[in-house]
Amino acid sequence: MLKSISLQNFRNYKKSTFEFSPNTTLIIGPNTIGKSNILEAVFLISTGKSFRTDKDYQMLEFGKEVGRVTALADEVKLEVVITSGNVAGIKSQYKKFLVNGVAKRRVDFAGNLISVLFSPSDLDIIVDSPSLRRRFLDNVLEQTDREYRVANIAYVKAIRQRNALLELAREGRKALPAARLPDGQGRQEFEYWDNLVIENGQVITQKRQDFIDFVNKGPKDILEFMLIYDKSVISRQRLDQYKSEEIASAVTLVGPHRDDFSVLMTDKKDTHDVKYFGSRGQQRLAILQLKSCEILFIEEKTGQKPLLLLDDIFSELDSGHINLVLEKAGDQQTILTTTHKEFVPKNLLKKMEVIEL
After folding, report:
1. Local structure of 46: helix, strand or coil
2. pTM, rounded to two decimals
3. For 4-58, what is each residue's pLDDT tens digit?
4. Which domains does the chain have, with CATH numbers?
5. Which residues are CB-neighbours of 159 under 8 A, at least 6 positions away?
6. b/e per residue 138-165 (b: at least 16 CB within 10 A)
């Protein structure tokens, strides 16, 4: 249960504190005033990362070198310190994580406060690039499974290092494992990173498969569909198979960083891909159902209901879809944002705590 959050030099907040209801809190304010920034801060405390940018320093108030987000979740104090990467002329980490004042790695920080986010940009999960669908899988699994967090962090690092070696190999300065170098150095370096990407990649693939199986087998009260996991299997054999192509492109061509999934629904006994053949309304329903499955998965894996974050859903959904979302909101602690109080049904509004910006 999130009790409060304090922002210092975070986005447009120099120093602000917000308290939340154990039920539903409604944040009201005009566009650009900073409603989504509050939800971004909550998501940061929950996952250790932003849902809006991959560059941590962009969360800082303009011109500041250090920012801080501090939250009280039940009796646990969670804190993320953000820097520009250079504080008082000294190079620093972009993010530091603390639990009750004790420094933690992100792998041990994420999961202390579990949340599910629904924002207008989530409507692009189905229709946009595979990277958004991979990010969705990561957001679900990193919060519920420490082994997944460990494997994903190690995998990303190993892929980065392996790609750097491939770049050197393309320039003729290193060789792949199959090459026989006099000193064996190039081969040994590749073998080390190959082993890491294979070992951690296989963990990631299996846990993504487990989640997709859960979704496919679970009940669906909004839209009936099936997820098809287009996995990029990683193994020693497949790395050898794409050896020449990888040198030519200087990137690793197989592995879960190439994964994707599609959403198939059946309509009048005909199965079709919602991305290409579904209406905008069906795509929205599919996302709502996917988020509902995410909530159920988190409950099963952790034994607790996640904090629900609803960012300006009234601007993208019609009244029928909004009611579906608000029905879910009644089951757990929820924070939602909107530009106008009038968008919220009056019978629900009277049950909410309101923050007006």
Report:
1. helix
2. 0.90
3. 999 999 999 999 999 999 999 999 999 999 999 999 999 999 999 999 998 999 9
4. 1-114+304-357 (3.40.50.300)
5. 197, 252, 255, 257
6. bbbbbbbbeebbbbbebbeebbebbeeb
